[in-house]
Amino acid sequence: MAESPRPDLLSLTPEALRRVLADHFQVRGQPAYRAGQVEKWIFERLAPSISAMTDLPRAEREALAASFDLAEPQPATVATSVDGTVKHVWRLADGELVESVLIPTQERLTLCISSQAGCAMGCTFCATGWGGFRRQLTAGEIVAQYRASRRWAEANGLGPVTNIVYMGMGEPLANRAAVHDSLTLLNRGYGVGARRITVSTVGHVPGILELADRHEQFRLALSLHAPTSALRQQLIPLEKRYSLDEVMQALERFDEAGGKRITFEYTMIAGVNDALELVEPLAELARRVGAWVNLIPFNPIPYKDWRASPPARIKAFAAGLARRGVTAAIRASRGRDIDAACGQLRAHTLAEAGAKGS
Ligand code: SF4
């Protein structure tokens, strides 16, 4: 984690921010409304720096910057796909690189954000996992991807970000303290509705249970990819720690918490997890927790010669699920040409790092 002697304003939850700013300005003999000015610059005007807060007197900006950081990541690269998907690689204060992806459709603009630099989970179908774990992101580094992407989207005619998914680099529920604070920040600070925010997990049981206990209706996506324990073991090493059965029990708790939507993500890999016999166990799991299923054609990654299931097989899967009363959608793959599609993040970054010999 980037060590800074000063607290990062972007990492503080709205309540904590109000408190520290009130104290700060009181000590300086400033009027109480100064705290509100700074909050507005952070949450509404998305100021990229303390020096941009121009309705504060210069001396107050300098004093604030002497006591606090506002740690915005710098864009290292930005790439736009032929399908309109935009991938940002952000350079954090200590040089770590993380990625976020803007995915426009006709009615929404979804932002996919990262919660860790790298990932320790090692899922076999995912380029991020192969790069290994680098470090946890702070809450500020997570929401900073939203702030900077929102500014970029508005400046480039994509309009407002309507939905946020924690499906970028990392397992969000393995970075729970920062992810919980970032959820609070996005929802109560930046005003993104809880139902428009989806946390994705590969099956981290304690994290699912904690999320179930939150009163807000954040959505949960389980990266399932295998509807039996035996197959899941081959694709997702976490099966050894949290079995499919335990994951399902945690999802039942999440479902019982009421009004919270669960989706299953199922990447379809030819000859690996697309046998038609798997439709029945998949449907059974989905029915247990009222989950919708997203079927995603596998995206190519380096060093693995797996291919996506043929379109006819994916359609047969979807039809089989529908016949069993499960809502299933075939998700178009977005941003493949810029390595922005599911499972591809970090592939490009790693290649760059390799080219530099680091
Ligand atoms: S799929 Fe998710 S949890 Fe698995 S290695 Fe990739 S980033 Fe990590």
Fold and architecture overview:
The structure is a single chain. With 358 residues, this protein is α/β, with parallel strands linked by helices. It folds into two domains: 9-67, Orthogonal Bundle (DNA polymerase, domain 1), CATH 1.10.150; 74-355, Aldolase class I (TIM Barrel, Alpha-Beta Barrel), CATH 3.20.20. The chain is 37% helix and 17% strand. It contains twelve helices and twelve strands. It has helices at residues 14-27, 33-44, 58-67, 127-130, 139-155, 176-189, 205-213, 229-235, 244-256, 279-289, 311-323, 347-355; strands at 74-80, 86-91, 97-104, 109-112, 116-118, 133-136, 163-166, 197-201, 219-223, 262-268, 292-297, 328-330. A ten-stranded mixed sheet has the order 1-2-3-4-7-8-9-10-11-12. The longest helix is centred in the middle third of the chain and has 17 residues, at 139-155. It starts with 13 loop residues before the first helix and ends with a helix. The model is unreliable at 347-358 (pLDDT under 50). Iron/sulfur cluster binds at residues 119, 121-123, 126, 128-129, 169-171, 202, 223. Iron/sulfur cluster (SF4) binds next to helix 4.
The gyration radius over C-alpha positions equals 21 Å
Strand order of the largest sheet: 1-2-3-4-7-8-9-10-11-12
CATH topology of the largest domain: TIM Barrel
Q: How many helical elements?
A: 12
What is the CATH C-level name of the largest domain? Alpha Beta
Identify every distinct bound molecule in the structure, by name, code or SMILES.
iron/sulfur cluster
3D shape:
elongated
Average pLDDT score: 92
